[in-house]
């Protein structure tokens, strides 16, 4: 209910912002908003994380594939932006990303062996370059990209137990690259920005089981997160 209510408010704000652009003589809102050297704000949003698996030996999908069931999580964080010129800005967006994924391993008869619930709370530290087009009335499209590092608070990296006792382990730190696009809408009292972004892990996140021939991790050469974010920014 809360999620639907929040989405409805955001959709209403976006609709008002869009409709105002078709006015034949629009009132220019926040004309000097982007001329400041430093800007601040915050973001709220949703995410959906997945895993990409690489295998040491391809014995066929019936033996090696790990099935991933995705769910929706949420994002919240702060924004610091430094102006370079009229079209380029550097952004730092520290945030908290909560997500949950369910992994299904083939070849087990018991559900307790075949299923692993992976709940992750990432504290993400992205440094991004934002490239904006020319402002049109009260809106301006942009592209952004850069790198980030994420601290996984639920990694279990230092846990001595492994999958043989039901504990799935991941590395504490992950390094990623991020790419996205969005539109800045200049409303009367603030700048509202919906954006879509993809996040792709560069480093392997899997901590192998103690047994090198583990039926859970023995044949996995790499496991990397992939995420899709829908963020709403207020500045």
| CATH-level-2 architecture | Beta Barrel
The outline comes out as elongated
Number of domains: 1
Low-confidence stretches: none
The quaternary organization reads as single chain
Number of strands: 10
Q: Over all CA atoms, what is the radius of gyration? A: 21 Å
The third-level CATH topology is Porin
Structural class: mainly beta
Which CATH C-level class is it?
Mainly Beta
Order of helices and strands: HEHEEEEHEEEEE
Major β-sheet, in short? 10 strands, antiparallel
Percent of residues in β-strands? over 45%
Distance between the termini: 26 Å
Helix fraction? 10-25%
Please, what is the average pLDDT?
A: 88
Could you describe the 3D structure shown?
The protein has one domain: Porin (Beta Barrel), CATH 2.40.160.20. The chain is 11% helix and 52% strand. It contains 3 helices and 10 strands. Strands 1, 2, 3, 4, 5, 6, 7, 8, 9 and 10 form a 10-stranded antiparallel β-sheet that branches. The mean pLDDT is 88.
Key features of this structure:
235 residues, mainly beta, Porin, ten-stranded antiparallel β-sheet, 3 helices, 11% helix
In short:
This protein has 235 residues and is mainly β. It is 11% helix and 52% strand.
Topology:
Elements: H1 2-20, E1 38-55, H2 61-64, E2 66-70, E3 72-83, E4 88-92, E5 95-105, H3 111-114, E6 115-132, E7 139-152, E8 173-186, E9 191-201, E10 220-234
């Amino acid at each position: 209910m809360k999620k639907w209510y929040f989405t409805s408010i955001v959709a209403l704000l976006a609709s008002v912002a869009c409709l105002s652009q078709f006015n034949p003589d629009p009132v220019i809102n926040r004309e000097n908003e982007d001329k400041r050297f430093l800007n601040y704000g915050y973001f709220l949003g949703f995410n959906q994380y997945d895993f990409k698996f690489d295998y040491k030996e391809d014995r066929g999908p019936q033996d090696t594939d790990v099935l991933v069931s995705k769910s929706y999580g949420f994002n919240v964080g702060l924004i610091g932006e430094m102006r370079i010129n009229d079209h380029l800005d550097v952004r730092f967006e520290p945030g908290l990303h909560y997500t949950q994924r369910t992994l299904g391993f083939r070849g087990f008869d018991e559900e307790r062996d075949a299923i692993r619930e992976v709940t992750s709370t990432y504290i993400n530290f992205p440094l991004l370059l934002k490239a904006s087009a020319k402002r049109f009335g009260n809106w301006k499209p942009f592209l952004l990209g850069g790198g980030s590092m994420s601290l996984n608070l639920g990694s279990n990296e230092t846990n001595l137990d492994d999958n043989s006792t039901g504990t799935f382990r991941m590395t504490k730190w992950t390094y990623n690259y991020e790419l996205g696009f969005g539109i800045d809408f200049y409303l009367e009292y603030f700048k509202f920005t919906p954006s879509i972004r993809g996040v792709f892990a560069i480093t392997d996140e899997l901590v192998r089981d103690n047994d090198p021939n583990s039926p859970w991790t023995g044949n996995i050469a790499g496991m990397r997160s992939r995420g899709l974010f829908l963020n709403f920014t207020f500045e």
